[in-house]
Amino acid sequence: MRTITISQTGAGSTSAVPLDTYRNPFHLGIGVLVSGVVNCKIQHTFDDVFDSTVTPTWFDHPTLANLTANEDGNYAFPVSAIRLTVNSGAGTATAKIIQAGMPGE
Predict the structure, then answer these.
(1) Alpha-carbon span 6 to 52, nearest angstrom
(2) What one-character DSSP code corresponds to residue 25?
(3) 104 occurs within a structural domain
(4) pLDDT tens sequence across 14-63
(5) How many structural domains does the chain have?
(6) Quick check: 74 and 29 in contact, CB under 8 A?
(7) How far apart are CA 29 and CA 63, in angstroms?
């Protein structure tokens, strides 16, 4: 998988980034970059974000929450999708996401 970059300026959430739950290993690396004054977090869901009849339940990442500075983390086990949420502040938070896979994907 190529690196996916998502950003959020000001309070709110990015669109969901669907992940390949069939990858073995699933491994997902995430780097969060903070610019300006923000408080942000990475969230994940186990729901199908492609099913318009379901409102996803979002869970906070255990260590990538309440971030005010650059930080990195990972998911070792499958989740359906992740998103970046800015809780407060007028700055920008950016997440770079890489999932394990074949070279060049």
Answers:
(1) 22
(2) S
(3) no
(4) 999 999 988 888 899 999 999 999 999 999 999 999 999 999 999 999 99
(5) 1
(6) yes
(7) 13
